[in-house]
């Protein structure tokens, strides 16, 4: 099962990368505040959906996974 070992290494690296991104995300002012992120605040209700941020993160992760498959 040599493929399993490589897959576990890639998954571990991705988890480490996500951990690093979550650590530095608070220091980047634009993460979660892009145009296209939905933010609705009313009297007793707040709704936040980071639509644009989710799309950007998805594109970056898709590109990284595409590079790893080559």
From TrEMBL:
It comes from the Bacteria. It holds the Pfam family DUF2905. The keyword Ribosomal protein does not apply. The chain crosses the membrane at residues 7-25, 45-68. Keywords: Membrane, Transmembrane, Transmembrane helix. PANTHER family: BSR5223 PROTEIN. This is DUF2905 family protein. It comes from Geoanaerobacter pelophilus.
């Amino acid at each position: 099962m040599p493929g399993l070992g490589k897959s576990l290494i890639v998954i571990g690296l991705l988890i480490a990368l996500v951990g690093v991104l979550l650590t530095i995300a608070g220091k980047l002012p634009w993460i979660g505040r892009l145009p296209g992120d939905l933010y609705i605040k009313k009297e007793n209700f707040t709704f936040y959906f980071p639509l644009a941020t989710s799309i950007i993160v998805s594109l970056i992760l898709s590109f990284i996974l595409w590079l790893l498959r080559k």
